Amino acid sequence: MRMKDKIVVVTGAHTGIGAASAKALAEEGAHVLAVDVDKDVEETVEEIKEAGNQASAFIVDISEQSEVETFAETLKSQYGHIDALFNNAGVDNSAGRIHEYPVEVFDRIMGVDLRGTFMMTKYLIPLMLDNGGSIINTASFSGQAADLYRSGYNAAKGGVINFTRSTAIEYGRENIRANAIAPGTIETPLVDKLSGTEEEESGRSFRETQKWVTPLGRLGSPDEVAKLVVFLASDDSSFITGETITIDGGVMAYTWPSEMLSDDSWKRTTK
Fold first, then answer.
1. In terms of Cα–Cα distance, which of 15, 35, 12, 23 is closest to 191?
2. Residue 72 belongs to what domain range?
3. Triad 222, 186, 62: Cα angle to 5°
4. Residue 214 domain-assigned (yes or no)
5. Judging by DSSP bridges, how do beta strands 7-11 and 31-36 pair with one another?
6. What tens-digit pLDDT sequence spans the chain (271 residues)?
7. Of 41, 32, 40, 27, which Cα lies nearest the Cα of 8?
8. Which parts of the chain fold into alpha helices (H)?
């Protein structure tokens, strides 16, 4: 097992990519410290334990400095160190053009997605200084290019990418690696929140459009992203740091979908 006896922190572990990654890391032998602002993260932990693996739940609002500091002190007292940190927790909102975009929405997204990633790294990286480790940050292909009406999310995820590089160059000598993942459209509760569920017309329309412009012709699954997270957390990626790995079904491979927009055959080959 690639993560045997490793202590791994996963934020946003209640649902989606976070939950899938927590389970995959535990299957590889890690003791997963599952963090979420939602107390229902305990459900993820119970599933991990029922599978015969190790996990503990922690209720932390990563946008609140005092809560992150207290969490770091608890880990130091209980475990002494950690081996990997997956900064995955995030929020998103489509909130209009920039001159219409509510400041409170921008601040909330930046507070969780970027500031939260900074604070978790700041307060937990001392627990890696003696033995090294791996940090994985969830960015997005929306941090590599822009979306209409999502300037806050675009700014936050772009910031996560460059913050990841900063971490990599500052802590490489302590054998601490830092990499970002940039998922495309993954079938998670966040997609339901932004566009609607598969049962709703808006949700079905969004999914069909995403499939249409994705070269692989489908959305990604949290389990597929989790495999990448395990790879980056493990020694299999021991000489990879400062990178952003895109996992989006090929969307970022082209400059413009061209014939995909005018040739209906592309719509008929989705999965």
1. 15
2. 7-192+219-256
3. 70
4. no
5. parallel
6. 999 999 999 999 999 999 999 999 999 999 999 999 999 999 999 999 999 999 999 999 999 999 999 999 999 999 999 999 999 999 998 899 999 999 999 999 999 999 999 999 999 999 999 999 999 999 999 999 999 999 999 999 999 999 999 999 999 999 999 999 999 999 988 787 777 887 788 888 888 888 988 999 999 999 999 999 999 999 999 999 999 999 999 999 988 877 777 777 887 888 7
7. 32
8. 16-27, 41-50, 65-78, 103-109, 116-124, 151-171, 189-195, 201-213, 222-233, 259-262
Q: How far is CA 131 from CA 9, 44, 84, 126, in A?
A: 16, 28, 11, 10
Assess if residue 32 is contained within a domain.
yes
Residue 122 three-state SS: helix
Q: How many domains does the chain have?
A: 1
Vertex 154 angle, CA 134 and 16, to 5°: 55
Show the tokens assigned to 36.
Answer: 């979420």
Let me know: does 183 contact 90? Beta carbons within 8 Å: no
Q: Identify whether 211 is part of a domain.
A: no
Residue 266 is assigned to a structural domain of this protein: no
Amino acid at 197: T
Q: C-alpha dihedral over 218, 223, 227, 230, to 10 degrees?
A: 150
Between CA 83 and CA 176 the distance in angstroms is 9
First to last CA, the chain: 33
Taking the C-alpha atoms of residue 248 and residue 216, their distance in angstroms, rounded to an integer, is 9
Active site (catalytic) residues: 153
Q: For residue 31, what is the domain's CATH number?
A: 3.40.50.720
The type of residue at 201 is E
133-138 vs 31-36, strand pairing mode = unpaired
